[in-house]
Amino acid sequence: MTVIALTDREFSQFQRFIYDAAGIFMANGKQALVSGRLAKRLAHYQLASYGDYLRLLQSRDQADELQMAVDLLTTNETYFFREPKHFALLRELALAARQKGGAMRVWSAASSSGEEPYSIAMVLADVLGEAPWEVMGSDISTRVLERARSGHYPMERTVQIPPAYLKRFCLKGQQREEGTLLIERGLRARVRFQHLNLVQPLPKVGSFDLIFLRNVMIYFDLETKRQVVARLLAQLKPGGHFFIGHSETLNDISDAVLPVAPSIYRKP
Fold it and tell me: 17 with 69: CB under 8 angstroms?
């Protein structure tokens, strides 16, 4: 069956769909991205148009397909130890926590395929050792969370990992797994992954000493940014730190935290 092109009307309907489902504002001009990522789903159901696929999603008969569409339309770009200054401060805060007994909880609120939470875990394991620390990673995409739980990555994804951490926390793939790397089991066990939609009310996740919400707000409109940030800051302990991407700001979004450095905030 030949699939016809995505029409402008269908594209605007998908813009609405991904906004309603995930709070993501999809800019105009992304028609090729939408059609490219969803073409296989049309073929799977033998549908003649993107409008037919949208009707399938809206019928709610296929809850799994709804999640599949969200997975395909949310972009996940990340790498290990992204923005080194954040990890330098994380290390300082972990050292301070060690002096007080070592307990620490950190939330990577848009963890994607797991590079960020595992980077956090490497620092905490190095500084705090067996102390009671925990890392939670959450994402709206079940597909990337599966990859994150596996802790299995192509070797080229790991160039930013400090050599000492690479040696201590990572296993190099052999034979069929050559060219890949596996996060060692002990570290994987300290990282918990959870499927969460940040634009909806949160389940009980507890409170955190640090929350990372990096390079996510760029996909939200102003009101959604305010709601998401307020929701997350409610889970941040007083004195806790909140990290965002270097291209982002909390100006006009929240005054519940105070800036301490570019892209780093602290809750009074």
Answer: yes
Q: How far is CA 228 from CA 10, 44, 200, 211, in A?
A: 28, 34, 8, 12
Give the separation between CA 97 and CA 117, rounded to whole angstroms: 18
Whole domain around residue 27: which residue ranges? Answer: 8-73
- Same domain for 46 and 132, yes or no, is no
pLDDT, tens digit (0-9, with 9 covering 90-100), for 1-27: 465 788 999 999 998 888 887 777 888
Residues 129 and 152 grouped into a single domain: yes
Do 124 and 176 lie in one domain? The reply is: yes
Residue with tokens 């780093």, as numbered in its chain: 264
Angle between helices 8-22 and 31-45 in degrees, nearest 10:
90
pTM of the model: 0.84
Angle 219-148-223 from CA coordinates, rounded to 5°? 20
**pLDDT per residue as tens digits for the range 199-242:** 999 999 999 999 999 988 888 889 999 999 999 999 999 999 99
Within the chain, which residues score under 50 in pLDDT?
1
Instruction: Among 40, 73, 106, identify where a domain stops.
Output: 73
Asked if residue 51 and residue 156 are part of one domain, the reply reads no
Catalytic residue list = 37, 139
